Amino acid sequence: MLTAVHTYLQTARVTLRRFAADDADLLIELDSDPAVMRFLSGGAPTDPDEIRDVVLPSILAGYDRWHGERGLFAAYENAGGAFIGWFCLRPERDGPVDEVELGYRLRRAAWGHGYATEVASALVEKAFTELDVRVVWGATMAVNHASQHVMEKVGMTVTRTLETPEDMLGVERSDLGGFQYEITREQWARRTAEAGSSSVPRSVSP
Alpha carbon 159 to chain centroid distance? Predict the structure, then answer.
């Protein structure tokens, strides 16, 4: 059940809330789907004990570290309340709090509905209008065109290429490396202003 006190963000179709200490099974189920893990581990599931003992405690600690303003949040459909995955908006552990990573992982049943773009766009807006963030960035494998498309749709552009980490060298087409995407607060404000201007009908002289 969603509670207002733990709601982080709500869009037209999705609500983000904090994970709770008893939510490990949600993450275990999500990471057990080979299709979901295709570009993360080559399809191998995350060990359930790692999720219970490391991943979930780290997520919960992040809420305290960043005062609930940043972190990794569970995503639920507004219609029906189904768990669809998670989204994150968080700094690197020892990085500046005004530079945050945008990321997500969705259940296969939630693919193809536009949820990633809808929520990512709202998170970028929240970052720049409520959280005093300077840069939002995201990283993806070169072969993961769907993820690239989402970042491009919310205004992010490639800022550098990435080498494949050693623990991902066995993943499909990992030899191609990856890309880091970014959008700054100034770029977002300019893009938003331009979009607003283009939606206003121009007057026509008689």
Answer: 18
